[in-house]
Amino acid sequence: MADDKLLSVDEALARVLAGATRLSGDEEVPLFKALGRTLAQDLVSRRTQPPVAVSAMDGYALRAAELAAPGARLTLVGESAAGHGYHSALGAGETVRIFTGAPVPDGADTILLQEDAMIDAAGVGAASPPPPGRHIRARGLDFREGDPALFAGTRIGPSELALAAAINHPLLPVARRPRVALIASGDELVPPGAEPGPAQIIACNSYAVAAIAEAAGAEAIDLGIFRDDIAELEKGLEQARAAKADIVVTLGGASVGDHDLLRPALARQGMALDFWRIAMRPGKPLIHGTLGEARILGLPGNPVAAFVCALVFLGPLIRALQGDPRAGADETEAAVAGAPLKPNKGRRDYMRATLTRDAEGRLTATPQALQDSSLLTELARSQALLIREAGDGAVAAGGPCRILRLPGAFVAA
Ligand SMILES: Nc1nc2c(c(=O)[nH]1)N[C@H]1C(S)=C(S)[C@@H](COP(=O)(O)OP(=O)(O)OC[C@H]3O[C@@H](n4cnc5c(N)ncnc54)[C@H](O)[C@@H]3O)O[C@H]1N2
Ligand code: MOO
Prior knowledge:
Elements: H1 9-17, E1 27-30, E2 43-44, E3 54-55, E4 59-62, H2 64-67, E5 75-80, E6 94-98, E7 110-113, E8 117-120, E9 123-126, E10 136-137, E11 148-150, H3 158-166, E12 171-174, E13 179-185, E14 189-190, E15 201-202, H4 205-215, E16 219-226, H5 230-242, E17 247-251, H6 262-269, E18 272-275, E19 280-281, E20 287-291, E21 294-299, H7 303-320, E22 333-337, E23 348-357, E24 363-367, H8 376-380, E25 384-388, E26 400-405
Parallel strand pairs: 5-6, 13-16, 13-17, 14-15, 17-21, 19-23, 22-24
Antiparallel strand pairs: 1-12, 2-11, 3-10, 4-6, 4-7, 8-9, 18-20, 20-21, 22-26, 23-24, 23-25, 25-26
Helix pairs in contact: 4-7, 5-6
Bound molecules: ligand LQZAQKY5 and molybdate ion (MOO).
Catalytic activity: adenylyl-molybdopterin + molybdate = Mo-molybdopterin + AMP + H(+)
Family: Belongs to the MoeA family.
InterPro entries: MoaB/Mog-like_dom_sf, MoaB/Mog_dom, MoeA-like, MoeA_C_domain_IV, MoeA_C_domain_IV_sf, MoeA_linker/N, MoeA_linker/N_sf
């Protein structure tokens, strides 16, 4: 059974996304700067493509009916190359040499593949003539001027860039990148490259969380490490306000210990708290609220907990703030368990797991032996999170399970 005192992950995500719509301040960016941004308006095609009927192959443009009779020969009268069409319509008994992407001359209705052409002194023939329409791309086959080709809320990836360029939009209207300020907290933390004291460690969470934020389209602003002191943390929050952060992400200090001072610091700054504990493992102490215009996400300090919470909550929030209608959609996939899974109580569990294919080719997720939420090595060696719902019973090896792929994960051989 779910721990009914704690908010479920789905309810928590719904609350994080409630009212999260595209931020004001749309921008126009050139194509080469648009990867990962989100369209703020529909993009209407400014072109029809192909602009005329063109050949899909190198060969000969002709009338199918004229080559149908056995032994028929056509007279080669000219050439149509991409960008340089044949100057006139095809006359009776004529054919034109044509290349891929070249305009099909008026009168021609099919393309004889170069490899299938028989050429002799009498002209161009074929052992098996092509039927009408073969290897011709009709005008407007891909897109037509005036039709919407890409829609507001679409995340721009490589294929969207190619289409946007082809429909002749050199500048793309995109949502403003949400500004995400990062505040790490803890007396034990020093930055990479520094010499830690005997009980200190190197802070790492900001790097992973900034990467997740930027991959979702945000601008990450690292405000550095703050000591476990309410006044210090308040300074961090003031810096986040000065940086005009849309989202303030705090890292650590979210739990109930005497040195977990974020909630009091946030309260003193005037945060309207929404929730601070959820039924998730790792990631129980997750703070959500608003502070002025900014949204607050207080991530737990344990690195894997911070990572998983950033994937599950911060990424979707950033996407929603750019107007992506699919933000928060279920991105899990079906897999089979590579090892027996124990019953799961209380909280939804996101177990770090490797991904392979079994002998039948099924996607197989095998949980790491150690699941402590401090273990970065296990995280870096994993390709997926194997999700166990609160109340799930035992599952035998080979039984069904659900996974969420980690960013950039491949399926190991
Ligand atoms: N009595 C209880 N204790 C704890 C509970 C609880 O419910 N009752 N929850 C545990 C869980 S679950 C987690 S997760 C942690 C979260 O605690 P905090 O958010 O307060 O995080 P800290 O105590 O500051 O740090 C926890 C751990 O993570 C390390 N850390 C923190 N920040 C970073 C960073 N930027 N880079 C690398 N490592 C970081 C820190 O050194 C600690 O080891 O609380 C449990 N306790
Ligand atoms: O968030 Mo804690 O274990 O759930 O690491």
